[in-house]
Structure formats: structure tokens, C-alpha cells
Automatic annotation (TrEMBL):
This is Scaffold/adaptor protein. Residues 61-118 form the CTLH domain. PANTHER family: RAN BINDING PROTEIN 9-RELATED. It comes from Lithospermum erythrorhizon (Purple gromwell). The lineage of its organism: Eukaryota, Viridiplantae, Streptophyta, Embryophyta, Tracheophyta. It comes from the Eukaryota. Pfam families: CTLH (PF10607), LisH (PF08513). InterPro entries: CRA_dom, CTLH/CRA, CTLH_C, LisH, Ubq-SigPath_Reg.
Length: 226
């Protein structure tokens, strides 16, 4: 019950916040990390000019990474695979799951374009052998091939595979793999920081009533309900 918890007023809470020293350089690094990880090349370049802070990786590599991501999102999977290999052939050579998912996306695109015979041939020659080696791959393949059993594949039980969300999922996986190959975090540090804010607030909720941030996008403190 709220009555058994410590009540912290807005004035007291804001006084505590005001004594926290936030290092400008650390904040700038956090922003630059976000721009680099999310692929905002122009923003990263401008931020570098304004702050003098050098990004963690070459900005040209961001452009190449975003080209791969956009190719997958547009359904041009073979082009994306070629671009990944141009960047670093070891990415796909050492990540069989990623390569399978890219090939699976190629199969989905063939089905989307109504190329049934080509899709069946591709599934049998390129994906089935990998499915025999990995049980989870086989299950994903069977799920994808189920699309071919319906005249209107979008109305099949797995019709969501044809949606944009599937392309985005595959593109995100490729993006993460490229970042990892460049010794960079897969996710922005800002995302991790926001998760820590949520966890800290949830923990504090057990002991106190205080001005809380309920909407992270606005970061507005909301007065406690006593």
C-alpha cells in the first residue's frame, strides 16, 4: 500500500536530480553511438563537426551497412547478400543462421512474386539441405513452404511471412551481424540506458512514491498519487 511507502515530493525529487553531475562528453558519446548504430550518417557527420567527437567507426561503413539493410527491406535479398560479402565475406561464412534467414527471405520473395516453380526448386536445392543439418531450420522452411499450399498466400496461417515485418526482422538481423563484425554494439547504448531507467523505477516503486517518468519519449515527471 502507498501509505507504507516513503513519499518523495516533486521539490525534493527535483533537488536530488539537480545535484547529479552529467558529463557533457559522456552525453555526446551516447548521442554519437545512437547515430552510428541506427545508421544516421548525415546526423553523425554533422554532430562530429559540432562537437569534435570522432565516431567509433568509419562513417563510410555506415553507408554500406544501410545499403544492405535497405536492399533487404526492398526485397532485393540477393543484392543484399552480395553487398554483405563485399563488406566482409566472413559474416555469412561464420553465421549459418543468418545466411539461412536471408535465403529464407529470398524464398519468401519468390512466393510473393508468384514464381511457384522457381520457389519450389530454390527451396529444394538451397534450403532443404540446410534444413537436414539443423532441425530448427527445417521447421522454418516447412512453415515458409506452407505459403505455397494456398492460392492466396496472404490468407494462409503463416501469411505474416509476406508482410513488411518479416523483411524488417531479417534486415535487423543482418544489421546486427554487420555491427558485431565491426566490434560494435548491436543495439544503441541509449536503448540499454532507457531499459535501466524502467528497471530502476520498477524497483523504486516497491519502496517509495515519487514523481515518475511514465512516458520515456517525453521524459516528463508526473506527480505521485498519494
Amino acid at each position: 500500500m502507498a501509505s507504507s511507502k516513503k513519499v518523495i515530493t516533486r521539490d525534493e525529487w527535483e533537488k536530488r536530480l539537480n545535484v547529479v553531475n552529467i558529463n557533457t562528453e559522456d552525453m555526446n558519446k551516447l548521442v554519437m553511438n545512437y547515430f552510428v548504430t541506427e545508421g544516421f550518417v548525415e546526423a553523425a557527420d554533422k554532430f562530429r563537426s559540432e562537437t569534435g567527437l570522432e565516431p567509433e567507426i568509419d562513417l563510410s561503413s555506415i553507408t554500406d551497412r544501410m545499403a544492405v539493410k535497405k536492399a533487404v527491406q526492398a526485397g532485393n535479398v540477393q543484392d543484399a547478400i552480395e553487398k554483405v560479402n563485399d563488406l566482409n565475406p566472413e559474416i555469412l561464412d561464420t553465421n549459418p543462421q543468418l545466411f539461412f534467414h536471408l535465403q529464407q527471405q529470398r524464398l519468401i520473395e519468390l512466393i510473393r512474386n508468384g514464381k511457384v516453380e522457381e520457389a519450389l526448386e530454390f527451396a529444394q536445392e538451397e534450403l532443404a539441405p540446410r534444413g537436414e543439418e539443423h532441425k530448427n531450420f527445417l521447421e522454418e522452411l516447412e512453415k515458409t513452404v506452407l505459403l505455397l499450399a494456398f492460392e492466396d498466400a496472404t490468407k494462409s496461417p503463416v501469411g505474416e511471412l509476406l508482410g513488411m515485418s518479416q523483411r524488417l526482422k531479417t534486415a535487423s538481423e543482418v544489421n546486427a551481424a554487420i555491427l558485431t563484425s565491426q566490434s560494435h554494439e548491436k543495439d544503441p547504448k541509449l536503448s540499454s540506458l532507457l531499459k535501466m531507467v524502467i528497471l530502476a523505477q520498477n524497483k523504486l516503486d516497491e519502496k517509495a512514491v515519487y514523481p515518475r517518468i511514465n512516458n520515456l519519449s517525453t521524459a516528463v515527471l508526473e506527480d505521485p498519487i498519494v
